[in-house]
Specification:
4 helices, binds zinc ion, mainly alpha, about 0% strand, about 150 residues
Length: about 150
Amino acid sequence: MSNKASRPNLLWSILTMKCPHCRRGNMYNSGNPWNLKKVFDMPEKCSECGQPFELEPGFWYGTGYVSYALSVALSVATFVAWYVLIGMSVQDTRFFWWMGSNIVLLIVLQPWLMRLSRVIYLYFFVRYNPDYADAHKETEQDATAHQHQH
Ligand SMILES: [Zn+2]
């Protein structure tokens, strides 16, 4: 266990929005997603390993599906929590209170969810490399070669 301590945990790296390649560099310039002017304020590439974030123009279009899936998953989670903690019945309005609360929650969390979607999306395409310092140059060459193909 202890020799893995230097390897950042996958889930934690996603939640703290770290670069998928090195899990150390930040994917966003500001830590606060609720500053809406800067919600998508990302560096062009990772400050730690040089991993580019927007892999190609329009790369982020697919994140709509991710944020949709996240919203659904979150709604299911709040539904279950509400059902267990508060309960629901067809004879009162508790179901509608859940629905209202859930909508408010989704709206409040939206900037954070949109950011998280980009992070998760990029994690699909970029593999973690613990030796990112050595692989740095190779990665840059790959990225350049990829661009030339288009
Ligand atoms: Zn990185």
